[in-house]
Amino acid sequence: MLEVRNIFKAYEGKPILKDISFSVGAGETVCLLGASGSGKSTLLRIIAGLESPDSGLVLFSGLDLSNTAPHLRDFGLVFQDYALFPHLNVYDNVAFGLKMRRVDQDQISQRVVNALELVNLSGFDGRQVTDLSGGEQQRVALARALAPRPRLLMFDEPLGALDRALREDLLNELRSILHQTNIPAIYVTHDQEEAFTVADRVLILHNAGIVRAGAPAEVWAMPESAFVAQFLGLGNVIEGEVSGQQKDNEWTVQSSVGVFDVRCAHKHQMGDKVHLLARPLSAGNDHAAKSSEGESSRNVLHGVVSDVIFQQERFKVILENGLYVYLNEAPGVGEKISVPIKVECLA
Q1: Residue 183's pLDDT is what?
Q2: Interacting residues of 278 by C-beta distance below 8 A, sequence separation 6+
Q3: CA torsion, points 83, 86, 87, 91, in degrees to nearest 10?
Q4: Are 116 and 70 a contacting pair, CB within 8 Å?
Q5: pLDDT for 111-167, tens place per residue?
Q6: Which residues of 249-272 are buried (b: 16+ CB within 10 A; e: fewer)?
Q7: Annotation: CATH topology of 2-224
Q8: Rg (Cα) of the chain, in Å, rounded?
Q9: What is the model's pLDDT at position 196?
Q10: What is the rounded CA–CA span in Å between residue 226 and residue 344?
Q11: What is the pLDDT of residues 251-291, one digit of tens each?
């Protein structure tokens, strides 16, 4: 098991990683998700031994790796730009790490065949990597990382150079390969769709720290902060003020776009500033305000339509106040609509 313990790192006096701690269990894929500059690639490089932390430890199976050189950590790395050797064919690229370890030639041949089969490139061993497509080159890079049978795999934006359709196909295959091999993995990306598809656990980085960690479904259901909700695009984040309490765990919140009734377990007082997440309900067939079961009749967004965007068999309707909802039928620009929403408190 990999354990990252209290990692700190600063550049020119500015913290980029502050007290980062997490672990990766056997067969688990952990995704480091964050915007550019959030420190996720730096953290990966520290784990790989390519950079040193200002303080903190990286351990594997309880052993401190501080004095272990990168090539001795037995970790596999896959990068966005493939990092293949253009003068070598597919076989020699995949065999490279094995040759460096002086593995027996017969075993090298068998491992290369197995690795290429795993990434669906059987029969490509004699091809020049410069003749391959981007997706095929990334498969070769993955096969090269898998061939030495590393005890940890690390991916740094591995699909960033591929088009959308190819990225989706390779992502699903990668998830299957990781489950087949049972190798623990760390996957770095800024793309939430990639993260939620491939990961068993997601760590969201922001302001040099981990602001949310959990299984994809847990993080999606309970973002726990305004930043995470906005970063994941879960809905409208609305600033408001607690203006009343109906009963235990039920509060009235006044905002610039309306009054909302919210159930939450946070301890509030009158006048507290809060952030609400207003998730658009499933697209409706009309624009009239109708409260869904369990939702207050107050929890309705009213506004004038400023734009309508077609998205995957439904319409994203943007209002003049900047908020949005989804509808099955497109209203006209300038039309006044009222749509029920699900409201939750982010504290």
Answers
A1: 93
A2: 235, 236, 237, 238, 260, 299, 301, 323, 341, 342, 343
A3: 70
A4: no
A5: 999 999 999 999 999 999 999 988 899 889 999 999 999 999 999 988 877 777 778
A6: eebbbebebbebbbebeeebeeee
A7: Rossmann fold (3.40.50)
A8: 25
A9: 94
A10: 11
A11: 889 998 889 988 888 888 888 999 999 987 654 545 554 44
Query: With 0-12 CB in 10 A as exposed, 13-18 as middle and 19+ as buried, what is 203?
Result: buried
pLDDT in tens, 180-226: 889 999 999 999 989 999 999 999 999 999 999 999 999 999 999 99
**Per-residue pLDDT reduced to its tens digit, 18-60:** 999 999 999 999 999 999 889 999 999 999 999 999 999 999 9
Q: Which amino acid is at 112?
A: V
CA dist., res. 277 & res. 224, Å (int) = 10
What DSSP string runs through 210-252? EEEEE-HHHHHH---SHHHHHHHT-SEEEEEEEEEEEETTEEE
88 DSSP 8-state letter = S
Q: The CATH number of 235-345 is which of 1.10.3860, 2.40.128, 2.40.50, 3.30.30?
A: 2.40.50
What's the pLDDT tens digit per position in 280-331?
Answer: 765 454 555 444 444 456 788 889 999 999 987 889 999 998 899 889 899 9
Q: To which residue do tokens 């993955």 refer?
A: 142
Residue 50 is which amino acid? L
Nearest to 65 by CA among 7, 144, 145, 16: 7
Domain ranges within the chain, ordered by starting residue:
2-224, 235-345
| Model pTM score | 0.87
Q: Which two tokens stand for residue 59?
A: 């351990």
SS3 for 47-87, per residue? HHCCCCCCEEEEEECCEECCCCCHHHCCEEEEECCCCCCCC
| CB proximity list for 48: less than 8 A, separation 6 or greater | 70, 73, 75, 77, 154
pLDDT at 178 over 70: yes
